Amino acid sequence: MKINSPKNKEMMVVENVSKNFNIPYKKEGLSGAIQGLFSRRYTLKEAIKSVSFCIKPGEIVGFIGPNGAGKSTLIKMLCGILVPDAGKIEILGFVPHKHRKRYTRNIGVVFGQRSQLWWDLPVVESYTLCKKIYRIDTHAFNERLKKLSELLEIKNLLHQPVRTLSLGEKMRCEIVAALLHNPPLLFLDEPTIGLDIIAKIKIRRFIKEWSEESGSIVLLTTHDLSDIQDICKRVIIIDEGNILFDGEIDSVIKRFSNFRRLQVDFFQDNMNIERVHQSFSQDKKISLEELEVSQGENNSYLIKFSQTNNSIISLIDNLLANFSVSDIKIQEPLIETVVRLIYERKNS
Amino acid sequence: MNVYLEFAKRSFQKLLAYRMSMAFRLIGFLVSLIVVYYLWKAIFITSPTIEGYSFKMMITYLILSFAINALYDLPVEYELANKIIRGDVAMDLTKPVDLQGVFFAESFGISVNQLIIYNIAFLIITASLFKIQPPASLTEFSFFVVSLLLGFIIMTAIGFITAVICFWTKDVWGIFFVKQAMVTFFAGAFIPLCFLPKWLENIAMVLPFHGVIYSPLSIYLSTISFYKMANLLVNQTFWAIILIVTGRMIWRVGIRRVVIQGG
Amino acid sequence: MTHYVELYLCFLSQHLKKILEYKLSFFIGIIPFILLQLAPIIIIWAVFEKIPHIAGFSFDEILFIYGLGIVSYALGRILFSNLSDFGYRYIIKGELDTILVKPINPLFYILASGFSEKEIGEIMIGIILIVKAIIDLPIHFGILDFLALGYFLINGVFVYGAINLMAITVCFWTKDPRGLTSPIMRIQEFSQYPVTIYGKAIRFIITWIIPFAFISFFPATFFIHRGEFTRYIFCLPIIGVIFPIIAYLLWLKGLSKYESSGT
């Protein structure tokens, strides 16, 4: 099986793509339902408004945006599930919805909330099925399965029924299923949803390694900004059907979500803001620039700081060394906050 | 009593939300009814009366049987059974109400709901399509109503027992299916029990299920003497009490299991 | 093509593995379906104790028709089991998306990835009825008859699938989990008895609009030598081709609707 090699360097070209939905306008109550049978009124919803971007081989791109921003509509169009109303999508030389059968042989898709594995059967049975579906030859299949199951640490799970796996284990198995046919393009839709931090880290590490090694494109949507921070160089932020930002993740972090919050609970009663300040000012690793301490409820304090000037580690080290601390929480900025900040920046 | 009324009201409202499914169910019942209508029509061509039933009586029997059957919907039983299997039933023990009482109240709410929005539509449609025989007199009709109420108690008590059995099983669906198949057959939902071979009829009359459909309808159609009618009512009352008490006992044992072993 | 055959067998063997993994629940699962089929058979039997024939059909002829009906429909339900909750599973829950990203015909995938095994008990009952009828009826059942039976069953499965598919394709437009499956599938009950017992309108509907009569009744008349239905036997292959084609075109239309509007 030969993969069509694209003519230019861009593996994925999206030009002025837009998508509208007609949402039936429903009236309340029984009479409304009866009226709805005869005449339906629709409201037009612009899910995607003329979006363009290109993606090169080996890129890992994160798509983020609040719920209902148009993320999943866009991903569905890229996967060939939805047909765009206008614009052009060309991926690996295919138009996804037109050449679906040939195109989908070249992509791997993982939907975080929908399993592709067979619930009642051992994991490996689902893989046998993938082998048949994607017509993978036996030798290549065995080799890839061996390698992937080592990388994702699922060797011991292969003969367990899917229903007995934990959420994190299942997700790792899903990813293997999506990669057995060695696709040059991988879609991950919310791959870390509902997972604990260790499971998340395992998956992130794998995605990064795999993409570097195979040179494949990875597109990922997520709610968790730290997913993107860890593995993507490039991020595309979508809101209300538009691309709000397309560029390096670092610059987003710097510009919009540079601030972190540390919530610290102290055991000792004699705490006040002054003492925290004093302790920080005596530490060489800590700068008081863009650092703000405020008192929360009870004996808890909030430290807001920018990551350009301070690292979380040195702050925590300092606190632990000088005070008796009962709990520390790190508050990540939410995507909603980042998007809001970007808006404010744009409008001002 | 007020609490139970509240439970009945709530389950009444819950069902209102499923109008569309109800409409489909209604259509389904009508289709089945039309099939059996033609089947019995073909059967009665060869002989005008069979076992004391005329064609008109037969159709009346079947329509009313469908209507009674529709009164008994499963959601209450399912909910209780699922609660038991998930172990959530412990939560209900904290409330100062009798669970069997609540079960009856909720079932009653559903049945009344079915009666009002579903059975009335069903009966209007069927009465305009087919000829239905009216009850012989007011006496028979009032007997019929009493018998129907006793039938409701029997059916609900059986439902409660089935749900409570789930303390010992893991599967809900299979048990309910088997129960439903047994009850509808031995209650005479498809055919008056006197049409069955004698030995099968005898078995059916020993079991409590005939009190749900066959007994009330025999009274309605007055195929039996007054003496026998009174006899049936006594029989139904007897079964209603036995089944309620049995349900309570099984419930006690099951609950003890949960309390001691923690589910 | 061979790829698809291979895939189908692969799916089938996966499903068999699943059944073997849960042997007990397989046996428990088929019991309710057997019970469900028993009630109408007992009723037919009881009725024939009172009268010699229904609309000119003897007991064994009716059993043959009914038995063939059971086998055909059970076969259809086994092979098209994934269509039964299509609207909820594939559209509302969005499983269709996961299928559309595979390099495979989506309808094929949906049909091949689900079998139901619960109907196997029904098939056994159906076969018992057919065998009993063949033994008691004065007909000779040769090799050609077996081939014809095989053909009729395959044809029936296609027609059944087509009707089923049309009933669920509606979900693409209504975005409602139900589709028309339950009301339409009820209509199959008509075809389990001789169509001659029904009025003209119903006969027309189950012959030409929702052609259930071609799945079981007309094929059955071929074997019990009912010459008056020969012309329908000739129509049978045409129905078996045209309906699936219409259904598939409708499906494609629904799918393109899905592709343009999503869920």
Specify the oligomeric state: heterotrimer
Per DSSP, the total helix count of chain B is 11
**Helicity range of chain C:** over 70%
- Biggest sheet of chain C, in brief? none
Structure description:
The complex is a heterotrimer of chains A (348), B (263) and C (263). Chain A is of the alpha/beta class and 348 residues long. Chain A folds into two domains: 12-254, P-loop containing nucleotide triphosphate hydrolases (Rossmann fold), CATH 3.40.50; 258-332, 2-Layer Sandwich (Alpha-Beta Plaits), CATH 3.30.70.3100. Chain A contains twelve helices and 13 strands. In chain A, the strands form three sheets. Chain A has a six-stranded mixed beta sheet with strand order 5-6-7-3-8-9, sandwiched between helices. A four-stranded antiparallel beta sheet of chain A has the order 11-12-10-13, with helices on one face. A three-stranded antiparallel beta sheet of chain A has the order 2-1-4. In chain A, α4 runs parallel beside α6 (167-179). Residues 1-8 of chain A have low confidence and may be disordered. Chain B has eleven helices and two strands, in the order ααββααααααααα. Chain B has one domain (2-261). In chain B, α6 (99-129) crosses α7 (138-165). Chain B has a two-stranded antiparallel sheet with strand order 1-2. The longest helix of chain B has 36 residues, at 226-261. Chain C has 263 residues and is mainly α. Chain C has one domain (29-261). Chain C has helices spanning 2-21, 23-50, 59-79, 86-92, 95-100, 106-112, 120-136, 143-169, 171-174, 181-186, 200-209, 217-223, 230-261. Chain C is globular and about 60 Å long. The chains are: A alpha/beta (348), B mainly alpha (263), C mainly alpha (263). Chains in contact: A-C, B-C. At the B-C interface, α2 and α8 of B face α2 and α10 of C.
Task: Give a topology summary.
The complex is a heterotrimer of chains A (348), B (263) and C (263).
Chain A: E1 12-25, H1 29-38, E2 41-55, E3 60-64, H2 71-79, E4 86-91, H3 100-104, E5 107-111, H4 123-133, H5 138-151, H6 167-179, E6 185-189, H7 197-214, E7 217-221, H8 225-231, E8 234-239, E9 242-248, H9 249-256, E10 259-266, H10 273-281, E11 291-295, E12 300-306, H11 312-322, E13 325-331, H12 335-347
Parallel strand pairs in A: 3-7, 3-8, 5-6, 6-7
Antiparallel strand pairs in A: 1-2, 1-4, 8-9, 10-12, 10-13, 11-12
Helix pairs in contact in A: 4-6
Chain B: H1 2-16, H2 19-46, E1 49-50, E2 53-54, H3 55-71, H4 75-86, H5 89-93, H6 99-129, H7 138-165, H8 173-186, H9 198-206, H10 214-220, H11 226-261
Antiparallel strand pairs in B: 1-2
Helix pairs in contact in B: 1-6, 2-3, 3-6, 4-7, 6-7, 7-10, 7-11
Chain C: H1 2-21, H2 23-50, H3 59-79, H4 86-92, H5 95-100, H6 106-112, H7 120-136, H8 143-169, H9 171-174, H10 181-186, H11 200-209, H12 217-223, H13 230-261
Helix pairs in contact in C: 2-3, 2-7, 3-7, 3-8, 3-12, 8-13, 12-13
